[in-house]
Design brief:
Layout (H helix, E strand, L loop, with lengths): L5 H18 L2 H8 L2 E7 L6 E10 L2 E9 L4 E10 L2 E11 L1 H12 L6
Antiparallel strand pairs: 1-2, 2-3, 3-4, 4-5
């Protein structure tokens, strides 16, 4: 495992901004459907920056990870059901272009990101 560098952190911030530009900022998500516990970081390894947040249960899903694969410039959406510190994967969508992230999120959760 390699050390996270200043360049990695700058990349992480850029990725987070791109994701929130598409799906709405964290304040909007809080107001629209009660999203909470926002976390930005590297998931799985340092080539996969992204965000994770929780929301009230929707279709047995209450947590979402949106992660960029920097090598392919495609995103992964992982939908989880978190209960008592246990994580149950309810959906995993790989190799999505950024433009498709919003529609997949809305389709899977039933929560709409726009009026």
């Amino acid at each position: 495992m390699r050390t996270v560098t200043a360049r990695d952190l700058a990349c992480l911030d850029e990725v987070v901004v791109s994701i929130f530009r598409l799906i709405g900022n964290h304040r909007k998500l809080k107001v629209m459907f009660g999203a909470s516990s926002f976390v930005k970081g590297y998931f799985y390894d340092t080539d996969r920056p992204g965000v994770q947040f929780n929301f009230p249960r929707s279709n047995q899903i209450n947590c979402c990870q949106i992660v960029l694969n920097r090598q392919t410039d495609e995103y992964c959406l992982v939908f989880l059901d978190v209960k008592d510190s246990q994580f149950f994967e309810r959906g995993n969508y790989q190799n999505l272009p950024l433009a498709n992230v919003r529609s997949v999120f809305e389709e899977v959760t039933g929560l709409y990101l726009s009026f």
